[in-house]
Each structure stands twice: as structure tokens, then as C-alpha cells.
């Protein structure tokens, strides 16, 4: 048995073969990929001429195990653009290695997308935020990456991207500008935020001391996803846009403790998903193929 991590993951040929197999199940040729966060999969219901491919139908694809993540790819048209939505993502805390968490991003790139939109449910760390706010990701902190669990660990194939990729500018400036303008037009100004998302491994929610630490590190919101996907997307040259729905406020004081639950996360998701979906749909309409 080997514990050598350098050979793990799917090869470039594996990824292309998976993409080819999936494309045989749909007529659509997507240019935009969307990963739906916890309870935020409803956007898939807005897709015209949908073709649905369940993850279990795709050889070598992980299965989604978390409530609020259905486990299917939805291909079709949104605002005139051809899209593929992941209705259900993979998380490190489900027991998947990082490279597997983000492998669908490489598959979507191999299917032809040039832009990736990532959505998530996140806890608010910035005391000025409120539950129900929408936070555009200006940047992220890859806590697992900083502590030795970067999604790009392992042998690098330059056909995916460079060995030492830059991560500055991961979130596309132009898309951020467009999204902000759309949010103003839609009247979302009062709930629109822009900030830094920090990924923790999960599945435990933060203690008060941890929330204080993450806040002191400069994070505005915390979640257990998104960063590996965004890093892999940037590595392979995709334009990335990220947005969080703030589903709960993290406790920064022992005097006002809120013990977050996944049910609470899904409930706020249900209540506020409509606005997030509207914003994302309008942005898709503006993206140049
Ligand atoms: O990041 P998404 O998938 O939206 O899910 C968020 O919600 C779950 C916790 O309720 C965690 O998985 C967290 O990451
Ligand atoms: O408060 C949170 N912490 C971590 N992940 C989350 N996902 C939704 N809310 C949270």
C-alpha cells in the first residue's frame, strides 16, 4: 500500500472521458457552469429545455450526501445562454478528498464552459451583516489550503494549469461590477454586501472563539465549500463569480450565542433563494459567451 499523494486524482484523459460521456446524454453545449449551494438549487427549475443527468449515472462521479443537495446536473437555457447547473455539490467533510470535491469543475471545463458561478450558504462574521444578506465574493481565505489541504496538491498536469498558479484576481472584476449594477437595478442595494469568504473544513459550526479568530483574520463570511471549486476554476483559466447567502450570523460574543443548525440554513435559503436566483439569472444574461 502506498500513502504517496502525488499520483491521486483523475488524469487529464479521465476528465475528458467523463465529460465526453456526460455530453452524450444532452444536446446542450454549456458555456456557463453554476454550482448551487445548500438549499439554493431552485435556479435549476428556471432552466428551459432541461436535460437532467443524475450523478449516479456518471461513471467516477461522487454522490451528494448532504440535505439540500440533490445530486444532478441540469443542462439547458437560462436567459438565452446555455448552462449546466450542479444541483448538489461535494464537501470535504463528507469524506471526499479535496481533489474529488472540485473535480466536477474540471469536467465542466472539459465540457466547454468558460465562466463558473458558485453560490453558497454562509455564516455572517462581519457584525454589520444581517441574516438574509447577499454577499458577493471579492476574495477568499483558503484555510484548508493554508494548512496543507490545498485542492491542487498532487502531481500537476500543465494541461489543467500551472504548477504554481496565482490566486489573486480569482473573482472576476467585470462580473463583480455587473452583478453590483444588477443588484442596484433590482433594488437589492440594502441587502447587498461584498466581502471575503473563509472556508473551514466542517462539519462543525464555529465556536465563539473560532468565529472571533476568523473575523480577526479578515473574513466577512464563513462556509464549508466554494474555495476548492474556485481555486480549480482559476487554475484552469475559468472566469469565476461567487455569491453567498448569509443564512445565519456567527456568534462573536458569549452573551448572544446563536447555535446555528443546518435546518436554519436551509430555512433561510428557502426564504431568500428567490432574490439570489434573480440576481444570478440577470448576470447570466449579461455574460458574453
Ligand atoms: O456551502 P454550501 O454547500 O452552500 O453549504 C453550507 O451549508 C452547510 C451547513 O449548513 C455547509 O455545507 C456549508 O458549507
Ligand atoms: O455559520 C456557518 N458556518 C459555516 N458554514 C456555514 N454554512 C452556512 N452557515 C454557516
UniProtKB/TrEMBL annotation:
Chain ranges of the Nucleoside phosphorylase domain: 31-281
Coiled-coil spans in chain: none
Record carries keyword Transferase: yes
Any matching Pfam family: PNP_UDP_1
Annotated pathway: Purine metabolism; purine nucleoside salvage
GO annotation, cellular component aspect: cytoplasm
Signal peptide interval: none
Reactions mediated catalytically: 2'-deoxyinosine + phosphate = 2-deoxy-alpha-D-ribose 1-phosphate + hypoxanthine; inosine + phosphate = alpha-D-ribose 1-phosphate + hypoxanthine; 2'-deoxyguanosine + phosphate = 2-deoxy-alpha-D-ribose 1-phosphate + guanine; guanosine + phosphate = alpha-D-ribose 1-phosphate + guanine
Full protein name: Purine nucleoside phosphorylase
